[in-house]
Write a structure and sequence with these properties.
mainly alpha; about 140 residues; globular; about 45% helix
Amino acid sequence: MITVITVIPVSPAPHAGRVYPLFGPKELNHYEIAEEMTQALGRPVTYRLVSLDEFTKELQNRGFGEYTGQHLRPVASDYVNGVFAGTNDVVKTAGGKEPQTVRECVTRNRKYYEDRSTSDFWSSAADRPRSTRVLRAQV
């Protein structure tokens, strides 16, 4: 995972050239995430485990374009293989702020969860062909 620290309350010097694995203070599985979303939205949200092929097909059925599928399938595979497992306090120690919880994030972005047309939002942003330009950020 690549992340740029954009707001550093102190000198950026200690972070220059550093790579931080980003987790959070609490690890949640998909069932726990669904429960947090249920609490934030005030309506049931469920998680159902599906195969990667079924996941990819469902993305297509919901109108997501090929670029979104090409990105999310490996992410889903990495999740299954434990790539994102773990906890740490990097967000707080490097960024100087408490990380947002799932419930806080869903509450803050509620409109995207309540409007069933949000797949248009994702496909319009994520499925446009990208240039080969590489963006680099220096701290």
